[in-house]
Amino acid sequence: MSEVRQSRTLRAVSVATLASQILIVLTGGLVRLTESGLGCTDWPHCTPDSFFPVPEHGIHGFIEYANRLLGAVVIGISIWMLVLAIRKAKSAGGREILTLAALVFFLSAAQGIIGAVVVWLELRPDTVGIHFMLSVVLVALSTMLVWRVFRGPRGPKVATAPQFVLTHGATALFAIVIVMGTLTTGAGPHAGDGGAVRNGLNPELLQHFHAWPSYALLLVTLALLVVAVRKGPRIHLFSVLGLLAASLFQMVIGLIQANTGLPVPLVAAHMMGSVFAAAAMTATVLSLRGKAEVSV
Predict the structure, then answer these.
(1) What pTM was computed for the model?
(2) Owning domain of residue 82
(3) If you write DSSP's letter for every residue of 209-257 in order, what string do you get?
(4) Looking at 56, 64, 122, 293, which residue is catalytic?
(5) Where does the sequence pass through the membrane (predicted)?
(6) pLDDT tens, 174-186?
(7) Distance between CA 103 and CA 207 in Å, rounded?
(8) Of the four, 92, 98, 118, 145, which is 20 to 30 A from 14 by CA?
(9) Domain-located, residue 172
(10) Number of domain units in the chain
């Protein structure tokens, strides 16, 4: 395989890695929002007596099983990415790509184990929450992977001190928003199964604890935008605009769903918005540095 073809394949598989990590969040959300979380009551078998869904479980079994199949595809893509990264390990920036690819693979495999625990413990909200937050981490890592494949090894700092401070402040607020949102979901009605327990916390109070850091994140992002417009690399400005769009989308959807009884389509949109926001937040951090002289 020629070097040009290898490079194209590496880029394509890195994008596939990110896309699959985002898609698995969507299908996982559909499992929970359609109350199909126990459509398969065992793991790795669907039921103790069958590896595949059984008619008795109806559409719920097929929805849960489809999510498991996609999980296998995600791991398969991560293995492919890891193999390609190993081949490129000796090139400029190759070790960083290899590290990221290895992290994505091992954490994707861990997701499979956590998914089994979720089923065995009958959708306890703490295990479901860990499952989701690890998906956010995987989306962030996959975004880093795509960035390094396309942009090359980490270059020198190109942003100003205020941009660094505001960006890392936004990152801390984003982490708080994700944690509080996960806790809020664990107290809400969408448990993944009608009989699943909730975390016992006050969902109305948690909605406020989730909203306040979200508002703070929006304000910090707006401040970051003002600074980025005045000075800084163009790619940083574009990343901040993406983060602002994701933050505004999440805020609007969050307010609407909280005041309309948490309709399933809006909850699904809010869940997907969170991983797109994670990708935008990651890109904003990465854009604080420029390209190295030698690209991958």
Answers:
(1) 0.93
(2) 3-291
(3) HHHHHHHHHHHHHHHHHHHHHHSS-HHHHHHHHHHHHHHHHHHHHHHHH
(4) 64
(5) 12-33, 65-85, 97-121, 127-150, 171-192, 212-229, 236-256, 268-288
(6) 999 999 999 998 8
(7) 32
(8) 118
(9) yes
(10) 1
